[in-house]
Amino acid sequence: MGEGSTGNASFETIALMSIFDTFLNWSVFVESLPALLRGLWITVGLGLTSIVLGLAGGLLLVMLRLYGGLPMSPLAIGYIDVFRSVPVLVLLIVIYYALPFVGIRLSPFWAATTALSLVSAAYSAEILRAGIEGVPKGQFEAARAIGLSSIRQMTDIVLPQAVKLVIPPLTSNSINVMKDTALASVVAMPDLLKQATQAQALAANPTPLIGAAVIYVILLLPFVRSVGLLENRLNRRAR
Amino acid sequence: MMASIISLRGVSKYFGHFRALDDVTLDVMAGETLVVIGPSGSGKSTLIRCINRLETHDAGDIVVDGFTVGDTRQLATIRAETGMVFQNFNLFPHMSVLRNVALGPVRVRGLSWVEAEARARKLLVRVGLEAHVAKYPTQLSGGQQQRVGIARALAMEPKVLLFDEPTSALDPEMVGEVLDVMQGLARTGVTMVVVTHEMGFARRVADRILFMCEGRIVEQGPPTTLFDTPQDPRLRGFLQAVLSH
Ligand SMILES: Nc1ncnc2c1ncn2[C@@H]1O[C@H](COP(=O)(O)OP(=O)(O)OP(=O)(O)O)[C@@H](O)[C@H]1O
Ligand SMILES: [Mg+2]
C-alpha cells in the first residue's frame, strides 16, 4: 500500500524529511488518533466477542468430543480438524462473499466474529481437551466416589484444575484471535488496522500505521501480563 | 440379627481377555469389618471398585443396601451410600481441607454450606485435624491427607466404607495414625471393606479376612483361623512372604 498512497512524495523530499517527520509525525498522529481509537474500540469488541464465543463453542465441542458418544463425538472431531485446517482469512471471505449467494448476509462485524469464533472454538476445544486429560484420573474417581453428578464433576473438580493447565495455551489462542481481528479490514470492517490505512492514505504519511502497531502492542501486553499473574496465583494456591 | 449389606453373586470382570474377577460370590454383613488380602494383581482393588462402580462388572449381580449396582437410576444412591478411601488420597488440590470434606454433603446430600462445614469440622476434629481445616491438601503430610480422605468419605454418612490400600503410599511413621482412625471407625458399626497389606491391623480389627488369588476368593475366615491355620498353600506362601518382611 506504500507507493500508491504516499502519492507524489519523491525520494528527494523523503530524504529531506527526518525519520521522525515520516514515521512518527506528531501532528499526523494527533489528527488520526480519534479514528484509530474508534478502530481500537471495534477491534476490542470484535476480539472479545470472538474469544468468548470461541471459548463457549470450544467447551461444547470438547464435551461432545469426550463424552458425546457415538454420533456426536466423531462429528466434534471432524469439526475440530476442519476448522483447524482452514485459514481464517479464507473462511472470512467465504462467509462474507459466498454466503450471500444462499441468502445469508452478515454484516462485516458478524461475518468476522463468526469466522474468528468458529476457528477459535476448534483450537479452544483442543486446548481444553489437553487440560481435562491433564487432570489425574484419581480426581475423576474421587469425584465419582462421593457421588457427584457428571456436571458437578466437571464444574467442581475437573474444570477448575484444568483451567490452571490451559491458561498459557488459551492465552496465546486469545492473543491470536485478537491479532486475527485485523483480517476483518478486508471485509470493510472499520477496525484499528482499517482506520490506520485510511488515515495513512489521507495524511500521505505512514505514522498512523506505526500508531496502530503500537496500539496493538499496548492492547495485548497487559493482557499477557495479567493472565501470567493469574496463573502464578493459581499455582501458588494448588502447589 | 445381622443382614448382608453388600452381596456379590457370581461376579466376573474382564480387562480385555484378562479375567480380573472370576465368579466371585460374597456377602458382607452390616457392621462387619472385612479385610481383603492377596498378592499383587489378585483382583482386590477390582473387587472393591466394582462395589461402587468405579469399574463395571461383566457378569453376576452386585447389590449394595438393596440397590442393584449397574442400574443407572440407582447409581447416585449407591455412590452416596459407599464412601471410598484411596491409596493416593485423591484429595481435591484446589479446595481447602474443609471444602474437600463439605463438598459431597452439599452437592449430593443437599446440605447448606453452613451445615456441611459444621459437619466437616466435627469429622476433622475426630480425625485430629481441627488445626488444619483452612489449609490446602498439599500443605499436609501424607498421613494428614489420608485422614482428610477418611473424613471426606465419612461426611456422606455412608453405610459402607471401602478402603483401597489406604496406608500403602505413606511413610512408615504415618501408617499408625491412619490405622488408628480406621480402628476407631470399625467400632462405630459402619461396614468396612479394607484392602491392605497391614497384617497387624487385619489381625486386630478384622471380623473376617478374605484371601484372594487370581481373581478368586481362595480362603476366608476370622483372623485367628486364617493366620494361624491357613489351609491353601497359596495363602501359606503369601503369609510367609508378607510376615517375613
Ligand atoms: N484398567 C485396567 N486395564 C487393564 N488391566 C487392569 C486394569 N486394572 C487392573 N487390571 C489388571 O487386573 C488385575 C487385577 O488388578 P487389581 O488392581 O484388582 O489387583 P490388586 O489385587 O489390587 O493388586 P495390587 O495389590 O497390586 O493393587 C491385574 O492383573 C491388573 O493388571
Ligand atoms: Mg490394588
Protein model, in words:
The complex is a heterodimer of chains A (239) and B (245). With 239 residues, chain A is mainly α. Helices cover 82% and strands 0% of the residues of chain A. Chain A contains eleven helices and no strands. Chain A has helices at 2-5, 11-16, 19-23, 26-67, 69-85, 88-98, 108-134, 137-145, 150-180, 192-203, 207-238. The longest helix of chain A is centred in the first third of the chain and has 42 residues, at 26-67. Chain A is elongated and about 80 Å long. With 245 residues, chain B is an alpha/beta fold. Helices cover 39% and strands 26% of the residues of chain B. Chain B has nine helices and ten strands. A six-stranded mixed sheet of chain B has the order 6-7-8-3-9-10, sandwiched between helices. A four-stranded antiparallel sheet of chain B has the order 2-1-4-5, with helices on one face. The model of chain B has no long low-confidence stretch (mean pLDDT 95). The A-B interface holds A 136, 138-139, 141-149, 152, 156-157, 160-161, 164, 237-239 and B 52, 54, 76, 79-80, 82-84, 86, 88, 90-94, 103-104, 107-108, 136, 138, 152-153, 156. The complex binds adenosine-5'-triphosphate and magnesium ion. Residues 15, 18, 20, 38, 40-46 of chain B line the site of adenosine-5'-triphosphate.
Mean pLDDT of chain A: 88
Cofactors and ligands = adenosine-5'-triphosphate, magnesium ion
Mind telling me the C-alpha Rg of chain A? 22 Å
Number of helices of chain B: 9
The coarse overall form of chain B would be globular
**Amount of helix of chain A:** over 70%
Radius of gyration of chain B: 18 Å
- State the oligomer: heterodimer
End-to-end distance of chain B: 40 Å
Helix content of chain B: 25-40%
Enumerate the spans of chain A where pLDDT stays under 50 for 5 or more consecutive residues.
1-5
Number of strands of chain B: 10
Order of helices and strands of chain A: HHHHHHHHHHH
The helix-and-strand class of chain A reads: mainly alpha
Largest sheet of chain A, if any?
A: none
Number of helices of chain A: 11
Strand content bin of chain A: under 5%
- Roughly what fraction of the amino acids of chain B lie in strands? 25-35%
Largest sheet of chain B: 6 strands, mixed
